[in-house]
C-alpha cells in the first residue's frame, strides 16, 4: 500500500507570511542575525492530502524551510513585544537605516576623498616646495616617520632568521653544557645531591636486601650510607681525562687507544644532549622501578649523629626564616611571662596540615616551638618537638612564618641571686615592720589623742582619710610648670623617708616661698600637695592673723603646735606679705606676729638636729604671695626660706590643657577648638580661663543652646574686651546704629581699618590679629584688636624691630586713605599720629639708634637714676613716665633729635605706602568684607590671603645670624655699629 506525502505549509501561515517578511527584505544579506539563524535552521514539516495537485503544486525544500523560519520568527517577535514591549521591527528599521548611511559614507569616501587624497599627493605638488601649506609640512614629517618605522621593521625582518639561528645555537650550547653524560659516577652524584637536599647532615641510612632464604645482604651502592662523602674519581674516567687532554695525539689515535684499553665511555661528540636527556630519563625510571620492586624485601638501618643533625637543622632554620628582622621572635622574648598552654606534637601536625598555623618560632636548642594560630582561643601555644628532620620542610611547605628565638644563657650566680631575692625582700619587710612597731608602740595612743583633740578644737586643720597612694591624683587636673611638680616630688620623697637625708647629714628644706601673679595656682598647688601627700595639713591666710580675736602670735604658735603633734605635716600660709612685708611689720601688732613666725621657723630648724627620731616630726612651712619684693629681708634669708618657686602665667600649651580640664564634664560641641583662640588668652591665668569657660556656658544657655559652641567662647572674649571699652550694646542695637550711619562714613572707616589689617598681616611675626569691627557700640569709629605673641611676652622687653613694625601698622590707616582717596584724607588718624610720634621718640633714645643711642636725652625728676641693669629692658626710660623729662641738650643735638624722629616716621610711612600699593588687591578684598559684614577676623584674613599671592615684608624681629660652619673671621653687623653724632646748626639757629 503506497501513501503519498507532500510537504506544504499551513494556509494560515501562508496568508500571514507577507506581513512578517516585510521587515526582513531590507536587511543586509551578511547580517549577524541571519548568520546565527543559518547555523541552526528550524524545519517545520506538515503532511496533508492534496485534493487537486494541479491547483497546489508541491513546493521545494528551500521554500518550506524559509516559510517555517518566518513562522518561528513571527511568533518570537510577537512574544518579545508582548513580554517586554520591545518591537523588533523598529530595531530592524533602524539597523537598515544605519546600514544605508554607512553605505552612503563609504561611497562618498570612495568617490570624493580618495581622488582628492591622490590629487593632493601628486609629485608635482610635492616638487613645488615654495607653495607648501603648513599641513603639508606636518604630513611630510609623518611620512618620514612611517618610512623610518617601515625600514626598521624590514631590517628586523631580515635580521630575524639570523637572530633565531643565534638563539638556537646558544640554546644548544647551553643544553650541551648542562646535561652531563649518563655515566655511573654521574648518576651516583645526582642521587647524592638529591639526598643532601632532602636530608639533614649527620643522618645516615644503610640498606639491606632480604633474600629468598632469609639471608640479609647489604647494598653497598645505596647513597644514603655515604651521601655526604665525595666519591673518588674512577680510574676509567681518569684515564679518559688523561687521553683527552693529551694534545700530541690525534683524534683517530685517541679513539684507537681507548678501544685498545677497553674503554667504552660515551663521548659528547657522538651523542647530543637530547639523547643524553632521554638516557637520563630511562635511568631514573629504572632506578625508581627498582626501588619499588625492592621495597618489599628491603630493610633500612638509620644512624644519627645528634650534634651534626642539630647543627644542620639550625642552619636550615637560620637560613630560611622569614625575612621579618626577628620581629616575631622579639615579640615572644618580650612576653616571656605570658602563659601559653602546651599543644601535643601530633595535634600540632594536624593543625599544620589544615593550614591553621600562622607563625612558628623555634627556640635556639630546637626542642620547643612557640606556635601562633590564625584564629581561635587561645592563639598562642607551646609545642615540645622531637628531633624530626622533616619538620622544617613540612612547616615551609605549609607557608607558615618562621623565626628563631635567641635565648640568653643566665649566669650561674645570677640564677642563685634570683633564687635568694624573695627571701631577702621578706627579711627586709620583717625588719621594717619591727622598727615601725617599736617606734609607734610608744606614740600611737598619744598621737591619736592629739589628732582627735585637734580635730575638735583647732581651726584650719585637715586630717587625711587615707594614705597618699589611696588618694586620687590631682596632677591631671592642675596644670603648672615642670619645676612645680619637681618640688612636689622632692617633698614627697622627703616626707616618705627623711632618714636618707639624716644618714647623709643633709638638712632638708624647711621653708618654701611660692610667688606669682594672682590666679596662677599658688593656693591650688598647696591643696594638691595636701591631697597627694595624704599627710596632715594646716592652712591659714595672712589676713586671719590680724583680724581674729586671738593675737597673731598665739595663732602662729597654736598652728605650729598642731602641725608638730601630727607630724610629718605641712603648714601653708597664704598672703604672707600681710604679716612678713616690709610695710606690714611696722605695725606693732603685726610685728609681734612676725616675730612669733620667725621664732617658730628657727625653733623648727634647731629641733631637727636633736636626734634621728625628731625627723619623724618634720614640718615643712609653705607660704604664698603676689608681691615677693615687698617681703622683709629677715624673713626670706636662707635657713628660713630655702626654696623660692615662681609660678608664672601659663604658656599657650598649658592654657589649652587648662581649658580642657575646666571644660571636662561640660557639653562642648564638636567645633570647639581652643587652639584657634589661644592667642586671645595671652596673659590669662588658670582662674581667668576657668571664668572664661563658665561665662561661655552662661552664654550658651542665654542663647538657648544645648551645648557650648565655638562662637559662644568668641562672644565671651569679645564681650570682655568691649565691656572694658564701655560698649554694652546688644546685637539688635548694634544693627540699628550701623543702619543710621551713612555709607560714605562707613566706607572711610573700612578703608582706614583695612590699611591697619593688611600691613599687620604682611609681617611674619607681628601681633596676633583677633578681629576688626566697624562702629563698635554705635560709635562712629572702628576697632582692630591685636594680641602680642608668646615670645614677645616671655622676653619681657620690646625690640627695635618690633617698634618699627608698630609704626608701619600705625601708618596703615592714613596711608590706605591716601592710596584710595588721594590727598583728600580724613582727620581720623590723630590717635595713630600720637602713637607714631611716641614710638619714634622711643626709637631715638633706644641704644639701637646708631647716632643718638648713647647720648643722654632724658633724665628723671625728683628721683635718683637707677643703676644700669644688663638684664633690663631695651629702653631705660619711657616718654609716658611722668618723672621723665628731656635732658639739657645743645641746639645741634636738639636738631639732630628732631631729624631722627622725622627720619623714622618718613621711612616707616614709605614702607607702609609700598606695602599697600603692592597688595592693592588684598586691600580691596578686606574693604569689601568690612562693608559687607562690618566685621572680619584674623583667621579669615589669613585664609583669604593664602590664595592671593601677597608680597610680604621682611622679618624685622629676626636677630642677626652667624654661621659657625664658615671659616675666617666672624662677620660684622654694620647696622649696630655706633657712629659719631651728625650734628650741625640748623638754619633757624644761625639767624
From TrEMBL:
Keyword S-adenosyl-L-methionine assigned:
no
Task: Give the matching InterPro entries.
Answer: AAA+_ATPase (IPR003593), AAA_lid_3 (IPR041569), ATP-dep_Zn_Metalloprotease (IPR050928), ATPase_AAA_core (IPR003959), P-loop_NTPase (IPR027417), Peptidase_M41 (IPR000642), Peptidase_M41-like (IPR037219)
What does the UniProt keyword field contain?
Answer: ATP-binding, Hydrolase, Membrane, Metal-binding, Metalloprotease, Nucleotide-binding, Protease, Transit peptide, Transmembrane, Transmembrane helix, Zinc
Transmembrane spans? 412-430
The Gene Ontology terms for molecular function here are: ATP binding; ATP hydrolysis activity; ATP-dependent peptidase activity; metal ion binding; metalloendopeptidase activity
* Gene Ontology annotations of biological process type: embryo development ending in seed dormancy; mitochondrial protein processing
A GO CC annotation recorded here is: chloroplast thylakoid membrane
Question: What are the AAA+ ATPase domain coordinates in residue numbering?
Answer: 508-651
Annotated coiled-coil positions are none
* Cofactor field: Zn(2+)
Q: Which family does it belong to?
A: In the N-terminal section; belongs to the AAA ATPase family.
Name the record gives this protein: AAA+ ATPase domain-containing protein
Amino acid at each position: 500500500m503506497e501513501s503519498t506525502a507532500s510537504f506544504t505549509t499551513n494556509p494560515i501561515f501562508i496568508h500571514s507570511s507577507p506581513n512578517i517578511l516585510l521587515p526582513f527584505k531590507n536587511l543586509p544579506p551578511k547580517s549577524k542575525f541571519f548568520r546565527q539563524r543559518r547555523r541552526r535552521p528550524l524545519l517545520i514539516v506538515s503532511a496533508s492530502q492534496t485534493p487537486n495537485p494541479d491547483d497546489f503544486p508541491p513546493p521545494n525544500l528551500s521554500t518550506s524551510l524559509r516559510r517555517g523560519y518566518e513562522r518561528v520568527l513571527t511568533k518570537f517577535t510577537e512574544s518579545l513585544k508582548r513580554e517586554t514591549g520591545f518591537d523588533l521591527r523598529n530595531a530592524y528599521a533602524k539597523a537598515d537605516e544605519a546600514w544605508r548611511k554607512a553605505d552612503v559614507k563609504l561611497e562618498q569616501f570612495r568617490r570624493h576623498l580618495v581622488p582628492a587624497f591622490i590629487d593632493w599627493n601628486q609629485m608635482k605638488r610635492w616638487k613645488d616646495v615654495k607653495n607648501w601649506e603648513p599641513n603639508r609640512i606636518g604630513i611630510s614629517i609623518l611620512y618620514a616617520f612611517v618610512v623610518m618605522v617601515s625600514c626598521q621593521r624590514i631590517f628586523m625582518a631580515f635580521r630575524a632568521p639570523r637572530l633565531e639561528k643565534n638563539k638556537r645555537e646558544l640554546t644548544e650550547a647551553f643544553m650541551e653544557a648542562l646535561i652531563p653524560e649518563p655515566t655511573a659516577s654521574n648518576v651516583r652524584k645526582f642521587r647524592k645531591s638529591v639526598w643532601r637536599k632532602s636530608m639533614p647532615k649527620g643522618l645516615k641510612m644503610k640498606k639491606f636486601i632480604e633474600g629468598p632464604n632469609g639471608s640479609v645482604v647489604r647494598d653497598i651502592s645505596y647513597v644514603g650510607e655515604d651521601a655526604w662523602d665525595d666519591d673518588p674519581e674512577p680510574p676509567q674516567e681518569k684515564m679518559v681525562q688523561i687521553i683527552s687532554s693529551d694534545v700530541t695525539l690525534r683524534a683517530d689515535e685517541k679513539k684507537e687507544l681507548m678501544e685498545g684499553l677497553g674503554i667504552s665511555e660515551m663521548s659528547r661528540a657522538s651523542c647530543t644532549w637530547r639523547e643524553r636527556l632521554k638516557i637520563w630519563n630511562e635511568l631514573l625510571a629504572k632506578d625508581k622501578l627498582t626501588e619499588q620492586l625492592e621495597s618489599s624485601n628491603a630493610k633500612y638501618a638509620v644512624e644519627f649523629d645528634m650534634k651534626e643533625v642539630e647543627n644542620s637543622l639550625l642552619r636550615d632554620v637560620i637560613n630560611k626564616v622569614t625575612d621579618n628582622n626577628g620581629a616575631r621572635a622579639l615579640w615572644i622574648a618580650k612576653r616571656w611571662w605570658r602563659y601559653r598552654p602546651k599543644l601535643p606534637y601530633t595535634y600540632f601536625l594536624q593543625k599544620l596540615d589544615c593550614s591553621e598555623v600562622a607563625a612558628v618560632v623555634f627556640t635556639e636548642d630546637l626542642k620547643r616551638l612557640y606556635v601562633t594560630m590564625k584564629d581561635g582561643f587561645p592563639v598562642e601555644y607551646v609545642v615540645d618537638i622531637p628531633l624530626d628532620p622533616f619538620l622544617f620542610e613540612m612547616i615551609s611547605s605549609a607557608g607558615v612564618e618562621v623565626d628563631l628565638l635567641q635565648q640568653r644563657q643566665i649566669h650561674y650566680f645570677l640564677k642563685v641571686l634570683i633564687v635568694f631575692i624573695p627571701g631577702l625582700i621578706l627579711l627586709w619587710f620583717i625588719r621594717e615592720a619591727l622598727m615601725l612597731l617599736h617606734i609607734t608602740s610608744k606614740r600611737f595612743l598619744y598621737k591619736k589623742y592629739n589628732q582627735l583633740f585637734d580635730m575638735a578644737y583647732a581651726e584650719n586643720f585637715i586630717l587625711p582619710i587615707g594614705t597618699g597612694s589611696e588618694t586620687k591624683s590631682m596632677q591631671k587636673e592642675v596644670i603648672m610648670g615642670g619645676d612645680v611638680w619637681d618640688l612636689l616630688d622632692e617633698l614627697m620623697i622627703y616626707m616618705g623617708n627623711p632618714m636618707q637625708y639624716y644618714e647623709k647629714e643633709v638638712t632638708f628644706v624647711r621653708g618654701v616661698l611660692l610667688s606669682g601673679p594672682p590666679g596662677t595656682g599658688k593656693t591650688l598647688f598647696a591643696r594638691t600637695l595636701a591631697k597627694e601627700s595624704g599627710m596632715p595639713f594646716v592652712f591659714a591666710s595672712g589676713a586671719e592673723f590680724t583680724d581674729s580675736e586671738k593675737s597673731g602670735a598665739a595663732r602662729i604658735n597654736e598652728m605650729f603646735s598642731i602641725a608638730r603633734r601630727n607630724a610629718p605635716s605641712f603648714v601653708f600660709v597664704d598672703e604672707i606679705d600681710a604679716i612678713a612685708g616690709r610695710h606690714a611689720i611696722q605695725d606693732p601688732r603685726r610685728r609681734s606676729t612676725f616675730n612669733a613666725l620667725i621664732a617658730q621657723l628657727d625653733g623648727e630648724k634647731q629641733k631637727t638636729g636633736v636626734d634621728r627620731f625628731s625627723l619623724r616630726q618634720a614640718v615643712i612651712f609653705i607660704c604664698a604671695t603676689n608681691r615677693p619684693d615687698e617681703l622683709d629681708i629677715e624673713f626670706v634669708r636662707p635657713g628660713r626660706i630655702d626654696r623660692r618657686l615662681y609660678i608664672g602665667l601659663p604658656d599657650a600649651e598649658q592654657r589649652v590643657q587648662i581649658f580642657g580640664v575646666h571644660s571636662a564634664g561640660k557639653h562642648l560641641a564638636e567645633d570647639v577648638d581652643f587652639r584657634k583662640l589661644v592667642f586671645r588668652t595671652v596673659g590669662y591665668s588658670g582662674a581667668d580661663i576657668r571664668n572664661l569657660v563658665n561665662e561661655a556656658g552662661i552664654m550658651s544657655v542665654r542663647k538657648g543652646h544645648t551645648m557650648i559652641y565655638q562662637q559662644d567662647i568668641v562672644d565671651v572674649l569679645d564681650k570682655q574686651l568691649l565691656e572694658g571699652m564701655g560698649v554694652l550694646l546688644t546685637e539688635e542695637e548694634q544693627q540699628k546704629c550701623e543702619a543710621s550711619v551713612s555709607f560714605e562714613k562707613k566706607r572711610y572707616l573700612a578703608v582706614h581699618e583695612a590699611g591697619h589689617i593688611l600691613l599687620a598681616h604682611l609681617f611674619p611675626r607681628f601681633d596676633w590679629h583677633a578681629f576688626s569691627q566697624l562702629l563698635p557700640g554705635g560709635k562712629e569709629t572702628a576697632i582692630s584688636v591685636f594680641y602680642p605673641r608668646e615670645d614677645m611676652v616671655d622676653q619681657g622687653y620690646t625690640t627695635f624691630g618690633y617698634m618699627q613694625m608698630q609704626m608701619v601698622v600705625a601708618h596703615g590707616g592714613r596711608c590706605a586713605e591716601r592710596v584710595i582717596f588721594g590727598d583728600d584724607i580724613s582727620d581720623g588718624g590723630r590717635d595713630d599720629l600720637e602713637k607714631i610720634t611716641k614710638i619714634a621718640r622711643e626709637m631715638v633714645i633706644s641704644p639701637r639708634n646708631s647716632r643718638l643711642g648713647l647720648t643722654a636725652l632724658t633724665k628723671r625728676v625728683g628721683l635718683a637714676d637707677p643703676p644700669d641693669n644688663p638684664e633690663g629692658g631695651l629702653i631705660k626710660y619711657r616718654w609716658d613716665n611722668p618723672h621723665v623729662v628731656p635732658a639739657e641738650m645743645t641746639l645741634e643735638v636738639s636738631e639732630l633729635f628732631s631729624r631722627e624722629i622725622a627720619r623714622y616716621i618718613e621711612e616707616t610711612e614709605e614702607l607702609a605706602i609700598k606695602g599697600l600699593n603692592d597688595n592693592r588687591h588684598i586691600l580691596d578684598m578686606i574693604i569689601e568684607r568690612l562693608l559687607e559684614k562690618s566685621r572680619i577676623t584674623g583667621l579669615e584674613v589669613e585664609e583669604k590671603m593664602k590664595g592671593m599671592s601677597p608680597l610680604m615684608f621682611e622679618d624685622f624681629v629676626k636677630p642677626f645670624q652667624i654661621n659657625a660652619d664658615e671659616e675666617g673671621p666672624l662677620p660684622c653687623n654694620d647696622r649696630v655699629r655706633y657712629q659719631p653724632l651728625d650734628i650741625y646748626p640748623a638754619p633757624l639757629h644761625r639767624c
